[in-house]
Amino acid sequence: MVGPNHPPFIIAEMSGNHNQSLERALQIVEAAAMAGAHALKIQTYTADTMTINLDTTDFQINDKTSLWNGNNLYKLYQQAYTPWEWHKPIFDRTLELGMIPFSTPFDETAVDFLEDLNVPMYKIASFENNHIPLIKKVAATGKPMIISTGMATIEELKETVQTARAFGCQDIVLLKCTSTYPASPENTNIVTIPHMRELFQCQVGLSDHTMGIGVSIGSVVLGATVIEKHFTISRSEEGVDSAFSMESNEMKSLVIETERVWQSLGQVSYGPTAEEKNSLKFRRSIYIVKDVQAGDILTKDNLRVIRPGFGLAPKYYEQLLGKKVGKKVKAGTPTDWSLFV
């Protein structure tokens, strides 16, 4: 249930936070469910489907700003991948707990495997959004696709979306994404969300790699209908993605606060809401504040703008000063036009 008429759809991304323990993976599933996430996502690949086992420069991460600096790609994927035999128990537990289980395939063999498990939808990672053969393969299943847009130009996204639609996918959600880990708020550019929605005529959300929940909450104001965050039980236990992953209390806050923001959007509205009408009486209005006799002149001494709001509106105050009272009036009487000569 994704769209502006529903609360933001929150995805907990397990990625490699299981640290090669199925028991831990199932604990993450349970923690995500307790925190209120609507879906649990994993990733489907092996080191061999991602790359080749070489130690040459091309296959090493040499970036001092990267969490994975110094790693060999093949060995990193060996550490991070989710064993395929774990998929079914993870999916089964996810379903038991009321969440939607799905995955990110990274090649065509992963799609075939996930089809055998009857996944209800697919995620395309930012690093694969230009992998047109994979897009065709996933789209041909006819199932919804969530596509992260990190690094992609408008032309690349056009090709990806057009390909997905041409090969059978009609339900597409694009996720604004900055493919750095963690991402900084300054480089997130969530004002792209409404532009992307208009340009591609589909739902748009956020794959959020920033720390905390502020950026995700802000994206809802701009129309994000899906939020994806990496999720772990504890960042202190470390793992390939733990440093920028969300913990249970943060996920719970994300679910609650994004729904509150969504509820608050409403529609363009002026004037008192139905709930506010009872509060109108606490506005200020014009009152007689001292006993006056017929013929007395209203002055700042006997006429004031005070609460509550049962008298004439404050805008008439200057107009009433200097008027004669037509009858005896007690202090505490709200003004109305029948009081004056």
Automatic annotation (TrEMBL):
<dbReference type="InterPro" id="IPR036732">
    <property type="entry name" value="AFP_Neu5c_C_sf"/>
</dbReference>
<dbReference type="Pfam" id="PF08666">
    <property type="entry name" value="SAF"/>
</dbReference>
<dbReference type="InterPro" id="IPR057736">
    <property type="entry name" value="SAF_PseI/NeuA/NeuB"/>
</dbReference>
<dbReference type="GO" id="GO:0047444">
    <property type="term" value="F:N-acylneuraminate-9-phosphate synthase activity"/>
</dbReference>
<dbReference type="GO" id="GO:0016051">
    <property type="term" value="P:carbohydrate biosynthetic process"/>
</dbReference>
<dbReference type="InterPro" id="IPR013974">
    <property type="entry name" value="SAF"/>
</dbReference>
<feature type="domain" description="AFP-like">
    <location>
        <begin position="285"/>
        <end position="341"/>
    </location>
</feature>
<keyword id="KW-0808">Transferase</keyword>
<dbReference type="InterPro" id="IPR006190">
    <property type="entry name" value="SAF_AFP_Neu5Ac"/>
</dbReference>
<dbReference type="InterPro" id="IPR013132">
    <property type="entry name" value="PseI/NeuA/B-like_N"/>
</dbReference>
<dbReference type="InterPro" id="IPR051690">
    <property type="entry name" value="PseI-like"/>
</dbReference>
<dbReference type="InterPro" id="IPR020030">
    <property type="entry name" value="Pseudaminic_synth_PseI"/>
</dbReference>
<protein>
    <submittedName>
        <fullName>Pseudaminic acid synthase</fullName>
        <ecNumber>2.5.1.97</ecNumber>
    </submittedName>
</protein>
<dbReference type="Pfam" id="PF03102">
    <property type="entry name" value="NeuB"/>
</dbReference>
<dbReference type="InterPro" id="IPR013785">
    <property type="entry name" value="Aldolase_TIM"/>
</dbReference>
